[in-house]
């Protein structure tokens, strides 16, 4: 299975998401899609508001982990298509940083697969976020399920 490019510099645009959906209209065996969009929150931590997250990754290791997730997902669920995109660089509060797009013949598969895939990404992929506060200080983000 070939490794796909999953990293996008900066936020993931609504145009990119829309184009991804449109590309699947010709795949008429698909009966259901499910999409997860991760958005940067303006969390308040120790009285400081998060203005953005600066994402970095060990890209080679992350690509390997994402490829393994892809293989596990196709083995565990009856999927037709699966796409994962994650931001690198600065993503402001309110912008999209993670886009998971799953397609199958039936809706039950896409719901279960999407939740499982997002959890695997959070626990298994070496992507790191530095939360940048409005006053330009920062802290390293801790992933939570």
Automatic annotation (TrEMBL):
GO biological-process terms attached to the record: Mo-molybdopterin cofactor biosynthetic process
Transmembrane segments: none
Lineage: Bacteria, Pseudomonadati, Bacteroidota, Flavobacteriia, Flavobacteriales
Catalytic reactions on record: 2 [molybdopterin-synthase sulfur-carrier protein]-C-terminal-Gly-aminoethanethioate + cyclic pyranopterin phosphate + H2O = molybdopterin + 2 [molybdopterin-synthase sulfur-carrier protein]-C-terminal Gly-Gly + 2 H(+)
Record has Transmembrane helix as a keyword: no
Keyword Nucleotidyltransferase among UniProt keywords: no
Pathway the protein acts in: Cofactor biosynthesis; molybdopterin biosynthesis
Name of the protein this chain belongs to: Molybdopterin synthase catalytic subunit
Gene3D superfamilies for this protein: Molybdopterin biosynthesis MoaE subunit
EC number, UniProt record: 2.8.1.12
Enzyme class: transferase
Similarity remark: Belongs to the MoaE family.
GO-annotated molecular function: molybdopterin synthase activity
Keywords (A to Z) from UniProt: Molybdenum cofactor biosynthesis
Taxonomy, superkingdom: Bacteria
Stored Pfam families: MoaE (PF02391)
């Amino acid at each position: 299975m070939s490794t796909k490019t999953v990293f996008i510099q900066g936020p993931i645009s609504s145009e990119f998401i829309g184009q991804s959906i449109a590309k699947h209209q010709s795949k008429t065996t698909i009966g259901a899609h499910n999409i997860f969009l991760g958005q940067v929150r303006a969390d308040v931590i120790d009285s400081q508001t998060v203005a953005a997250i600066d994402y970095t990754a060990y890209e080679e290791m992350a690509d390997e982990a994402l490829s393994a997730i892809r293989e596990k997902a196709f083995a565990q669920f009856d999927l037709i298509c699966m796409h994962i995109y994650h931001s690198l660089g600065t993503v402001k509060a309110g912008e999209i940083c993670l886009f998971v797009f799953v397609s199958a013949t039936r809706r039950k598969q896409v719901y279960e697969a999407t939740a499982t895939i997002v959890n695997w990404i959070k626990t298994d992929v070496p992507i790191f976020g530095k939360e940048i506060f409005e006053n330009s200080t920062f802290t390293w983000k801790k992933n939570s399920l």
